[in-house]
User: Fold YceI family protein from Reichenbachiella ulvae.
Amino acid sequence: MNTKVSILFTLALAVLIASCGGKKSNTEETTTEESTEAAVAATYTVDTLASTVSWSGEVAGVYGHNGEIEIAEGTVSTLGDSITGATVVIDMTTIQPMDSASYKDEDGRRASDLVAHLSTGDFFLVEENPTSTFVIKSHNGSELVGDLTVRGITKEETATISSLEVGPEGLSAKADLVFNRQDYEVSWEHFMEDMVLSDDIKISLEIVAKP
Assistant:
C-alpha cells in the first residue's frame, strides 16, 4: 500500500513540475513577442521648410563666418527610438551667410561676395556639385556614423546627437558634425592659407520629419 501511494505521489509531483515549467515557457515567449512588437519600424520624410542646416568656419583664429543652407530632400528610417538609416540632401546653391556684422556695402566686402567665393573652385565648386549629402549608416548611443559627400568626394564621418525624439507623429533631431575641408578638396589656395582659414567646418543639423 505504501509503495502504491509513493508511486502516485511521485507521478503527481512530476506532472505539477512539468505544468509549472510549461507556464514559465509561455510567459517567456509572450514577453519576447511583446518586446519585439514594441520596436516599431518607421520611415519619415524630412520637412525641408521646418528643418535647417547651419554652418560655421573660423578665420584667423579671431572671427569666423557662419550661416545657413537649405535641405533639398531627405528621409529617416527608425526602429523604435534608434535611427537605422537616413539620407539628407543639401542644396549647395542656397548658401546664406548670417554673420551680418562682418560685411560692408562695398565691393569685396558684401555677403554676396562671400557666397560667390564659396561657390567657386576655391571652396565648394557649386556649379559642378550643386548638392552635398549625408547618408547615415549606423546609430550607436549619441553617435551617427555616415558617408558625407562634398564636391563629389565621399568620406565616412561621425555626427554627435544632442537631442532625438521619435513618435507616431514624427521625428525631430539635432546633431553636430565637424569635417576637415582638406579631405574634400575645399582647399583655398592663399599665400597665408594656414594662418587665415581653419581646416574644420562645423555643420549643425536640425531635422524635422513626418510619416
Observations:
- The chain is about 25% helix and 45% strand.
- Residues 1-38 form one domain.
- The helical segments are 2-38, 111-118, 193-196.
- Residues 4-18 have pLDDT under 50 and may be disordered.
